[in-house]
Amino acid sequence: MKIRLFHKFVMVLLLVSLVPITLLGYRLISIGQLGVKTAILELHLNMAERIAGDFRAYTDRMDGRMRFVMDAMLKLDWETKQALLASLMDTNPELKEVSVLSASGRELIKALSPSYSAPAPPGASQGSGQELRSYAGDPAFRSALASKKITARFDWSSGRAEMVFFYPFQKDMALRASVSMDRFPAASELKEVGRTGFPVVIDPAGRPAAWPAGVEAGELGGIKEWPITRTALSALASGSAEYENADGRSQIGAYAPIAEPGGAVIVTQSREEAFRYALFMRRQAVYAVLAFVLVVLVAAFLLSRQMTGPILELTRVAGKVAGGDFSKTVDINTRDELEDLGETFNNMVRQLKTYSDMQVDRIIREQKNTEAILFSTEDGIVMIDDTARVQLANRRARSVMGVNQDEAIEGRPLTDIICDAAVKSAVSEVLDSRKENFVKEIEVALEHSRRFFKCFSAPIVAPGKSARLGTLVAFYDITLDKDLERIKEEFLHSITHDLRNPMGAVKGFVEFLLKEIPGPVNEAQRKMLVSIDRAAFRLLGMINNILDIAKMEAGRMELKLTPVDVYEIARRMVDLLESLGQRKKIKFVLEAPGPVVVDADGAMLERMFTNLIGNAVKFAPENGIITVHLEEDAEKVTAYVGDNGDGIPLEYLDKIFEKFEQVKGQKAGGTGLGLTICKHIAAAHLGAIRVESELGKGAKFIFTVPKGLARDDHGKIFIRVAA
Fold it and tell me: How many other C-beta atoms can be found within 10 angstroms of the C-beta atom of residue 484?
């Protein structure tokens, strides 16, 4: 499929402009999205780290106050210590309970927040909030005494998250402080992130300890199962991740671990909300790219049209010029190379018009001369193109084809305009034949006479060139040749009839004299009479051959069909003619499987073998070999006579069966009628004869006689079909 230049320009411009901008836009969108996502995750990460820092600061403040209290208690008595603890509770509302523990874990003194009322924490003995408890079973207490270091843990015994600190005090005592997490969100300014995001502090078990006031507790359900929760509790440093919560919704989050007492800070938000701006940016970028594509399409269309318009105009005008219209020019005003091309094209058209005007008169003059020659010749000439359409036909050709002289036939198929069926068949056969110099004879009834033509064809080639321009079909008038041949035939027949009777009388009288019926003859007279008899016999045979040919051509030769043994006929002819080859010491070979019986005219077959063997004797060399071969199959009998003489040139293989035709340069005598008679005998038996020969290797004449020959009621020979 041919793609127009305009479409090619559009496609090239689109590829050059759209592919890079599309790839660049895609890359920029990807980078922009990645940057926005990274910034959002970084924001969440900073928030988590800030809250974790606030948590450490929150616990550090408590630690500073506790250390101050411990230092002060070293110098005070028990009553003053109790007052100090009460004062501490009043000034630090986040404190729920402060107590001094003995080495056994029993509370010695304690101070409670007025709002404190809760069951005993794990590891403490049961009792009211005002009673002194024992924390001997608390692992954090034992760890503090053993390590002499501050320990802390989350406590949930009151139903709310609290932090419990154990400070080693004096030698074997400890200070216990319980800090509520209720004030931490306000202290750390825990706020929601957007509509779906929020930070949350979790303990080492994954339970939420602190979160913004606006977040419902139900939103924290299943927080232990969040993938980010497990990651945060096992991480040693802060990080971020994308995950799905218990409801299967996509989330993003950041986390920061809390070193003491363990746990982590998690900031989570819906992925859709968090990346909404990134998605908005992507849509805006896609819209921008689509707008650019539209602009490029329009620009490519306009630019391609501007570039291809002059070329298309050149093509259109060039087509007009090719059709012979030299009045057309192009008008291109692009102020570039295309305008120069248009001017050059216009100059070329003007030059072509000048040259055309100069050539028209000469062409017309030559055409008229050619037509005068063609139409004055007595031979028919037809010129056709490669599609067998008529280009030119002269007067004689129109007459032969039966076409009116005024009828327009140019451009029509040759076989469609021929009226005479015989002429049409001959022309078709000539055009379809692949043989070189193939000729077909036809007889045509013209207006005042019947004439004979030879029809042949030849390729039309321009002088000095090999390109074929068409085909020439010619009708060569051979009426005069036919008339001369007929006159010659009539003359020969007349002469032979006039000579046959006198020659018969001469031969009869010579035989009469040789028998010495009139009287004795001497030896010299006998020799002369024998020579006269032989010459008369040869002349009489020649006359008989001519008369037989005339009968055969006139169709008056009648076959006498009888069952004959072809082998026996061949054997007799070999025995009869073997003496002719004795002078050249020729060897005769008869090859046959045995008796070969066929319905045929025995006399005609004898004459066939006589002519073929006689010719072989003439052309066989000294000590040559003549082979007579017979074979049969279910349909026919095949025989051949071969010799090992000089052979027959290729150009004579088809001619030697014509009358009086002999190979030039081979002086073997004869009239040239023997093979013609053989051809007619084979045809009369519905068979065929042919020759195979190669120069220097002899010749082989092969003929066939069909089996089952019979004569119908009208005397016509036919082949019976086997039942």
Answer: 11
Q: What residues have CB less than 8 Å from 230, skipping those under 6 apart?
A: 206
Tell me what pLDDT residue 496 has.
63
> Residue 107: which of 178, 155, 182, 158 has the closest Cα?
178
| Cα angle, residue 56 at apex, residues 53 and 60 outer, rounded to 5° | 135
Q: Which residues of 514-533 are buried (b: 16+ CB within 10 A; e: fewer)?
A: eeeeeeeeeeeeeeebeebb
Domain 377-477 falls in which CATH fold? Beta-Lactamase (3.30.450)
Residue 385's region, left for phi above 0, alpha for psi from -120 to 50, else beta, is beta
Q: How far apart are the first and last CA of the chain?
A: 62
Domain-wise residue ranges, the chain: 48-274, 377-477, 484-550, 557-719
Is the C-alpha dihedral spanning 549, 555, 558, 564 positive or negative?
positive
Tell me, rounded to whole angstroms, the distance of Cα 25 from its chain centroid: 38
pLDDT at 118: 46
| Structure letter (DSSP) for residue 192 | -
Q: How far apart are CA 635 and CA 39, in angstroms?
A: 104
Pairing of strands 390-393, 239-244: unpaired
Per-residue pLDDT of 230-242, as tens digits, reads: 888 888 899 988 8
The model's pTM is 0.40
Q: What is the CA radius of gyration of the chain?
A: 65
pLDDT, tens digit, for every residue of 487-531?
A: 877 776 676 667 667 777 887 888 888 888 888 888 888 888 888
Residue stretches of the chain with pLDDT short of 50: 118, 125-128
The pLDDT value recorded for residue 127 is: 46
Residue whose entry in the numeric block shows the structure tokens 């305008």: 339
Residues with Cβ < 8 Å from 318, sequence gap 6 or more? Answer: 345
Strands (E), 417-552: 440-445, 450-461, 468-477
Contact 430, 473 (CB under 8 A): yes
Closest CA to 569 of 718, 722, 703: 703
Query: Could you give the CA distance from residue 278 to residue 353 in angstroms, rounded to a whole number?
Result: 70
> What's the sign of the alpha-carbon dihedral 695, 696, 697, 698?
positive
557-719 to CATH, choices 1.10.645.10, 3.30.420.180, 3.10.25.10, 3.30.565.10: 3.30.565.10
Residues 6+ apart with CB under 8 A from 31: none
pLDDT, tens digit (0-9, with 9 covering 90-100), for 605-617 = 998 998 899 889 9
Phi (first) and psi of residue 34, to 5 degrees: -60, -40
DSSP state of 121: P
